[in-house]
């Protein structure tokens, strides 16, 4: 089988420009996800706290095995829709380890 060799010049102007561009995209993605993780905003969080309720991601963290990751599947669902009043389209779906099994 033939081997395809790639030679990347990490100092070329194209590479540097592309790297900077994609780094900006990653930073924006992280900011958007942080905004989603705030849920419905301070008022919604205060309402839950007043009722002694956990936020959805707090409940998921308690359900999953300690020190294991949770892969949230669609945190940006409904992004830029409904004035962003429905973070993650109002649901959280994902995959996590519970009692050693992926669920």
UniProtKB/TrEMBL annotation:
Domain Acetyl-coenzyme A carboxylase carboxyl transferase subunit beta as annotated: residue spans: 47-103
Gene3D superfamilies cross-referenced by the UniProt entry: 2-enoyl-CoA Hydratase, Chain A, domain 1
Superkingdom of origin organism: Bacteria
InterPro entries: AcCoA_carboxyl_beta, ClpP/crotonase-like_dom_sf, MCCB/AccD1-like
Pfam family, one: Carboxyl_trans
Protein name from the UniProt record: Acetyl-coenzyme A carboxylase carboxyl transferase subunit beta domain-containing protein
Species assigned in the record: Dictyobacter formicarum
Lineage start: Bacteria, Bacillati, Chloroflexota, Ktedonobacteria, Ktedonobacterales
């Amino acid at each position: 089988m033939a081997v395809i060799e790639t030679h990347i010049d990490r100092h070329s102007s194209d590479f540097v420009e592309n790297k900077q561009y994609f780094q900006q995209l990653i930073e924006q993605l992280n900011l958007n996800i942080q905004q989603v993780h705030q849920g419905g905003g301070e008022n919604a969080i205060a309402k839950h706290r007043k009722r002694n309720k956990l936020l959805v991601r707090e409940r998921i963290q308690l359900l999953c095995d300690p020190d294991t990751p949770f892969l949230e599947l669609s945190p940006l669902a409904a992004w830029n829709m409904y004035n962003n009043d429905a973070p993650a389209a109002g649901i959280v779906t994902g995959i996590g380890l519970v009692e050693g099994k992926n669920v």
